[in-house]
Amino acid sequence: MQKNVAIVTDSCASIPETIIEALEIHWVPYYIHRGMEVLRDLVTIQREAFYEWLPTVKELPKTASPGPGEYLQKYEELAKEGVSRIISIHMTSKGSGAYQAALTAQAMAQDLISGLRIAVIDTLNVSMCHGWMVIEAARDAQAGKSLAEIAEHVRAMIPVSKMLQTADTLRYLYLGGRIGKAKHLVGTLLNIKPIISMEDGIIIAIGQARSRRRAYQMIVDKVEATVGYMGKIKVAYVHAAAREEAEKIRTLVERRLDCVESLIAELSPALGVHTGPGTAGLCYFPISMT
Predict the structure, then answer these.
(1) Which of 31, 171, 181, 189 could bridge across to 64 with cysteines, CB 3.0–4.6 Å?
(2) Does this model's pTM top 0.85?
(3) Per-position DSSP letters for 268-284, written without gaps between them
(4) CB 9 within 8 A of CB 127
């Protein structure tokens, strides 16, 4: 069936490149300001080099979302290719300016291009929760669904898509100003592993453990408490330069839940700035609830 709708997102969705290519997902890079150097996320800086460098810094690089002009350029490119319907999907507006930039670009594009319709969606989430919404939208588009149908599906995923992750330290979230409601954990001992999630678009702390393994068990407990033993989910095991840790979580999860689809995704540098290398966790949604 002919694809009627183009899907646009940005690099912080952290979707594996093979999936981006297979589903024809269009994306715009974030920016990383490293001193006087301006890097484009996943264009002029790649994951491996970035995560090797990040632990050496005394001051975190700054990140910036794409501006309205960059989203407008992407929308115009698609219109020139004959696209008349676009869904643009972005990370939480409470942690990034991407959603507002895309809204501005939407208004500009619809004034400039007759017949073009664009839906801009704030996922109120990050990482592969954001990424899953993009993936599902792209699959709907390939199946020939309408703009309204795809937008409805994505919006139904927002309240049930959950991110749970842990790291050795909250230093990166704190220094980057993305700590949200987890500030009280900043001063915890180094041997305490915080577990963070997101609620209504803001980072929150939902627990802490004395070891990574215990943190991972708590993460799986929380997923099972939501969907039930052997509940059906789609899950992405996410990490920042810590694939072995993501694999450990995968082993624990797949003993207790029915993973209809699973994948491993490494955070893009622009997102990893705020989590730091060593972060591992998961992003999932229960398929019966969407």
Answers:
(1) 31
(2) yes
(3) PHHHHHHH-TT-EEEEE
(4) no
| Token couple for 222 | 């929380």
Q: Order of strands, edge to edge, in the sheet holding 6-10?
A: 26-28, 6-10, 85-90, 117-122
Per the rule left: phi > 0, alpha: psi between -120 and 50, beta: everything else, 166 is beta
Give me the residue spans of the domains in the chain: 6-30+65-157, 162-289
CB atoms within 10 A of CB 77: 13
> Is residue 105 a contact partner of residue 71, using CB atoms and an 8 Å limit?
yes
Does CATH place domain 6-30+65-157 in 3.60.160.10?
no
Provide CATH code, domain 162-289: 3.30.1180.10
Q: Which element (helix H / strand E) includes 251?
A: helix 243-256
For residue 43, what are the CA distances in angstroms to 11, 29, 32, 33, 230? 9, 7, 11, 14, 39
| Cα(134)–Cα(157) distance, integer angstroms | 11
SS3 224: helix
Over residues 112-154, the pLDDT tens digits come to: 999 999 999 999 999 999 999 999 999 999 999 999 999 999 9
Q: Sign of dihedral through CA atoms 240, 244, 247, 251?
A: negative
